[in-house]
Design a protein that fits this description.
Residues 1-26 form the signal peptide. Keywords: Disulfide bond, Glycoprotein, Membrane, Signal, Transmembrane, Transmembrane helix. With 170 residues, the protein is of the alpha+beta class. It contains four helices and ten strands. The protein has two domains: 28-124, Immunoglobulin-like, CATH 2.60.40; 136-170, no CATH class. Helix content is 27%, strand content 25%. The protein has a five-stranded mixed β-sheet with strand order 2-8-7-4-5. The protein has a three-stranded mixed β-sheet with strand order 1-3-6, with no helix packed on it. Strands 9-10 form a two-stranded antiparallel sheet.
Length: 170
């Protein structure tokens, strides 16, 4: 292979890797959905209808002149206090990464916590990938489906085909 094709190969490899990693992107969970971060909303119900994974984001949307967000421990959550807070935000459109598998506690520090502006979310480790890219699944109605690895598998397959097809394999 000549050196003149190396830049094209690197560009192709970079593009394929970008698509591969973009397909496994994080979820942005907007607290309260279209109701946002406001008093009188049942955020426990909202959180129970979501599954949070390491790498996801939790977003708070609110009037920045009125409210804010503090990450606190369980005691701060239970008592609506910001003492010992580990983070605070006040932009009105806050994106907070959930980087660890643990329970997170968030409250409003301007008094809104006493009116329900608090949410606790449990963040899980990412699920393990399937053991086989062509796993056979049996449903409860007796039908059998053959699942693939989806877009990530297709992109990975294309990447490997290009890589080994161009004689770049080990």
């Amino acid at each position: 292979m000549s050196n003149s094709s190396a830049p094209i190969l690197h560009l192709t490899t970079a593009a394929l890797l970008f698509v591969l990693f973009s397909a496994a992107s994080a979820t942005d969970h907007i607290v309260g959905a279209n109701k946002g971060w406001n008093p009188g909303i049942n955020y426990t119900l909202w959180a129970n209808n979501h599954t949070f994974y390491v790498g996801d984001f939790i977003s708070f949307r609110y009037q920045k002149a009125q409210y804010n967000v503090f990450e606190v421990n369980k005691t701060g959550y239970d008592n609506c206090t910001t003492e010992g807070a580990t983070g605070n935000w006040s932009s009105g459109k806050d994106f907070i990464p959930l980087n660890k598998a643990m329970r997170y506690y968030f409250i409003c520090g301007t008094g809104g916590c006493f009116n329900g502006m608090k949410v606790s979310v449990l963040v899980h480790h990412l699920p393990s990938p399937p053991r086989s890219s062509m796993a056979v699944e049996h449903s409860s109605d007796g039908t059998t489906t053959h699942g693939g690895s989806g877009l990530v598998g297709v992109v990975l397959g294309l990447f490997l085909s290009f890589w080994f097809g161009l004689g770049l394999g080990v």
